[in-house]
Amino acid sequence: MNIKLLPISCILLVVCVNFYAIVSDLFLLENLTYILYFLIFFFFLLKKRHGFNGLMLLFQVCNILAYVARLFSGKWFVELSLVFFSIAYTAIIIESSKHIKIKNANYYMFGYLLIILGINAYFMWQHLFEIKVYLRTPLEYYFYSLFYLNLMILGITAFVYYLNSYSTKSMYFISLALCIIFSDVLKDMSLFYFKDISVEIAQSVIRLGSAFFVMLFFITKEKKLRLLNVV
């Protein structure tokens, strides 16, 4: 086998195992495949990138620990996984913020961002209000609130970074942010509202996309392709 095809073969094998786990309702195997998604791309990232980035390692470690926590069914493991996810997402928010430079601020754009922020906050509050009845304790509700607040900040940061840069790196980051947000929302849909195989497979494919785009984000250098200075 061509050595260059080995990562692709590994990913295809893990995806097939993941689909089998979803269809067969094998929760532990499903979470193991999510860990493998990120590990495979992480090892590929280490081959492509010279040197270590502390925030990159923090994201990968906390992200994997969040999936590991989901393998256990104890009282605090759900909350622990939410904390690890929040730390991981904070790491890439900080990393992307390094490349945002506020110049020639456009008040219309700031107004637009405030409207987007308000709409997202409203829908986040509505979602949290609806899932509150499914949560076991008020503490779990607070952890979910922190987690979704983190997702909202991630989405806003990706939007601002893209409009500020229009670079290849910013496109990878906004794609990463969208993959993370949609996969987590779809996962909660199947967990709290209704369990549907097609929804779970969709979130799995999107989650694979997040593992792919986080690799591209960290190996790509920032090169400005500014078309319009809107932020």
Automatic annotation (TrEMBL):
The chain crosses the membrane at residues 31-46, 53-70, 76-94, 106-125, 141-163, 170-186, 201-219. The keyword Transmembrane helix applies. It comes from the Bacteria. Signal peptide: none annotated. Keywords: Membrane, Transmembrane, Transmembrane helix. This is YhhN-like protein. The lineage of its organism: Bacteria, Pseudomonadati, Bacteroidota, Flavobacteriia, Flavobacteriales.
